[in-house]
Amino acid sequence: MQYERPLFLLLSSLLAAAPIGCAADPPSQPEGWDTEVALRPALDRDARPEVVEVDLTARVEEVEIVPGMKTPTWAYNGGLPGPLIRARVGDRVIVNFRNELSAPTTVHWHGVRLLAEMDGAPGHSQPETPPGGSFTYDFVVPDAGLYWYHPHVDSAVQAGNGLYGPLLVEDPGEPADIGDELVLVLSDIGLRDDGTLVDPTVGGNLGTVFGREGELLLVNGRVNPVIEARAGLRQRWRIVNAAKSRYYQLAITDHRFLRIGGDGGLLEHPVASDTILLTPGERADVLVTPRGAPGSTLSVRWVPYDRGYGATFARPEVEAFRLRIANEPAAEDEPLPELSRTIEALDTSAATRVDLKLTQREGPGDVVMGINGVASWEADPLLAAVGETWVWTVENTMEFDHPFHLHGFFFQVLGADGKPVRPMEWKDTVNVPVDGAARFAVRYDNRPGMWMFHCHILDHAEAGMMGMLQVMP
Ligand code: C2O
Ligand code: CU
Predict the structure, then answer these.
(1) Which residue from 2, 112, 188, 208 has the highest number of Cβ atoms inside 10 Å of its Cβ?
(2) Which residues, judged by CB distance below 6 Å to any ligand atom, belong to the binding site of ligand 1?
(3) CATH 3.40.50.1970 holds for 180-325
(4) What's the pLDDT at 23?
(5) Which ligand is closest in space to the CA of residue 110?
(6) Is the pTM for the entire model greater than 0.85?
(7) Coil, strand or helix at 116
């Protein structure tokens, strides 16, 4: 009877290969469609379904960003971006972090509503992890969405050198068939001719004020990769902008995007648009249905966004990545599942109001930015209490936009009339336009502690545009 098993396997594989039912199979993306943008998955060492335990090590690693050239980058688990950590809503995530860099660092879990002790804010949640040191992050992920992780020590240098990675929290209750999913980590990097990293202080004060952008655009660590597509078949792109300063505005000729989600999961309802804008730190969940002749290529372009004085001057568009339409007949449009979500507007009738100004100090020496004229290193924390609702108004007094990020809590963006902007969504990063303001409402749920807020142009944050919010129990 020793042939029993192989015979069974042979029979079942013959059956699987049989053409029965093929005509009814739903159309699929071309074989290997996402190979060029595949992310390395973080290995889950815990067998329990509701626990994700991964090892994360930061060290300098030679990475081939430009073919044939080695670039020593600062990398998580030896590659750029860091590995994709995948969890489901309510899971416990344990990250065994090791610092093998020559500098101290921490890991911040951007957007996750975790306890302050796990937030990676040096001096507030934890001491810096020294070279050779380690730290165990242990938290629950309560909300579906795409998040990301990056250092919070010398962040412009450390994230700019390659330390960033995605954390995807999936909702098993989400409708199936939203679209074939890709996680896209957008960033940029500056390289010298020999492949080494550009000096992070390049451009001096002017570089700091503008925010340093690397001239190479990266999509999952690759320059201008190709995604294969079947015409007419929806793709779902979960995008994070992990660049330290660059605003990402994307466009595809003759195509529209359907944005279904943002920083904190799905929107109230989807919105269609010609372009998608992500400021540093923001995420977008978008549907794209590629159309074109078999064998043709669509260009997904980075389009300069006017974030203030000179930001679009003489800057050409750049092809960020491409979509290649397969040699297959176009698929029929599949109806989109219902994607509405009920988001209750926060009651702001008794809210505490706080007004902040984003500022730059005049004077000699290194440029100093701040909030209300005060740099982060000399600022006192704002004081709040668990259960309070606040309305923040963040005003811009500078000639550049600033993406404003609050740690630990989602907020609802308000219009000038004080009403939530529709469709409503939960956000943790919002653009503050030149000569304008951003307003948002936030409720401090029961997670007391010290939380940071700052401009996510990391050169600005490190120049002082950061502050703290202390939520008392
Ligand atoms: Cu992604 Cu304090 O930030
Ligand atoms: Cu800024």
Answers:
(1) 112
(2) 108, 110, 150, 152, 281, 405, 407, 452, 454, 456
(3) no
(4) 53
(5) 1
(6) yes
(7) helix
